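Please decode residue identities from the backbone states below.
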């Protein structure tokens, strides 16, 4: 765990954040400041700073994040209406929390 990393603390169960999904590798929870009716964050338990810091060893966790989104989509009712998955990368890309996470947003009227 990286010191003073909010998402390490959340993923480690050290806060009262409610998980919508938890596996041994990742957690999923609602964004505190949603940009859409559905806004989830999919967060590896492993501390990786950003997409720039991914290594070959991280292939599986990346796949896990996308499969977790696929599994959450029907649970959140957005599988047929559609959703966006994205990573903000470093400050210029809008990243504010430097622990890798994938955003999942959707739920707009279609
Ligand atoms: P990013 O800008 O890609 O680093 O995204 C960070 C996201 O984390 C933002 O959308 C914030 O609203 C969200 N966020 C910050 N603190 C919390 C928290 N304690 N619980 C849930 N989401 C948070
Ligand atoms: Zn971290």
């Amino acid at each position: 765990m990286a010191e003073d990393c909010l998402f390490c603390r959340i993923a480690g169960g050290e806060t009262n954040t409610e998980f919508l999904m938890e596996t041994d590798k990742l957690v999923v929870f609602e964004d505190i400041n949603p940009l859409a009716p559905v806004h989830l964050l999919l967060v590896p338990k492993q501390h990786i700073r950003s997409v720039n810091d991914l290594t070959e060893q991280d292939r599986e966790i990346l796949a896990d994040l996308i499969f977790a989104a696929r599994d959450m989509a029907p649970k959140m009712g957005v599988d047929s209406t559609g959703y966006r998955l994205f990573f903000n990368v470093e400050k210029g890309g809008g990243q504010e929390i430097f622990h890798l996470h994938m955003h999942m947003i959707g739920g707009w009227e279609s």
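Observation: The helical segments are 6-11, 59-76.
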